[in-house]
Amino acid sequence: MQAPPVPIGADLGAFRAEVAAEAAAGARLVVYPELHLFGADAAPDGERNALLRASAVDLADPLIATLGTVARDASCWLVPGSICERGGNGELFNTAVVFDPQGALVATYRKVFPWRPYEPYDPGDRFTVFDIPGTGRFGLSICYDAWFPEVTRHLAWMGAEAVLNIVKTTTPDRAQEVVLARANAIVNQNVTISVNCAGPVGRGQSLIVDAEGAVLASSDDAAPCVLRHDLDLDAVARTREHGTAGSNRMWEQFLPTDRPLALPLYEGRIDPARWRPRHPAADSATRP
In what order do the strands lie in the sheet with 162-166? Predict the structure, then answer.
């Protein structure tokens, strides 16, 4: 859903109707842009951050329950963008939330890389994936996270076959983000779904990219629109097995006899025994 932000505190009737309409049309998963229900764009620059902080809720807030009912009533998976989350020690997080068709909150992800110094958020400290049974495993990232290759790489290693990158880009660098969406898909061999907010606030240009970097659906401008696509996540496994363009199999780079490669930047290393993506059945769906 490439849509403009909804002002903080606005009635959610139109949002509820949109989700219901998409589900009725056959959508199993509906995804909105970053901070979709926390629009503070009409506030003067000097007041915006204070307004966002004042709007923050914890995960037990009635708003979370309301969003769960939206998903339950529509009987679909729902990512309603991200929320301003109030942490237990007074932190302010930019947090993506995921609801299943029964309305349960099944996954949350706190943005690891806030766009500083503009954004007031505290950074999260873990990566998140979740499973849609019978479909596949999805990873979560938020906007500026896409500029840091470690994020998508780690999600892919955790078994994500598709990465949902929810975005609120209002600046001219959306053109570069479109390139990054394709690049992250190519170098990790996973689907990338980059959902930006619409004008007049955002720059739009949302897109869905397959595991070889081909654009499956896209918006060429900032006008509100819906991108609909039936994902073939089995193609991710095929790409990893046969290689991008039938050539490159990055996840098969190491031999069992190869020594670990030191990574001084991270005070760590690449261990060939831990290099390959983890199978969804190997462990729990959401983990640090």
Answer: 129-132, 136-142, 162-166, 191-195, 207-209, 215-218
Range of the domain at 18: 13-282
Cis (ω within 30 of 0) for the bond into 260?
Answer: no
Is 136 contained in some domain?
yes
CB atoms within 10 A of CB 148: 15
How do residues 219-244 score in pLDDT, each as one tens digit?
999 999 999 999 999 999 999 999 99
CA dihedral sign, ordered 250, 270, 287, 183: negative
Q: Please, which pLDDT band fits residue 280 given cuts at 50, 70 and 90?
A: low
**Helix segments in 189-288, DSSP class H:** 234-242
122 within a domain of the structure (yes/no): yes
* β-bridge mates for residue 269, sequence order: 262
pTM for the model stands at 0.93
Under 8 Å between Cβ of 252 and 258: no
In a domain? residue 106: yes
Number of domains in the chain: 1
Of the candidates 94, 92, 86, 90, the one whose C-alpha atom is nearest the C-alpha of residue 57 is 86
How far is C-alpha 79 from the chain's CA centre? 9
CATH number of the domain that residue 119 is part of: 3.60.110.10
**Cis previous bond, 101, omega within 30:** no
* CA–CA separation, 138 and 128 (whole Å): 9
Measured from the Cβ of residue 214, the count of other Cβ atoms closer than 10 Å reads 11
Helix (H) or strand (E) holding 129: strand 129-132
Residue 252 belongs to a domain: yes
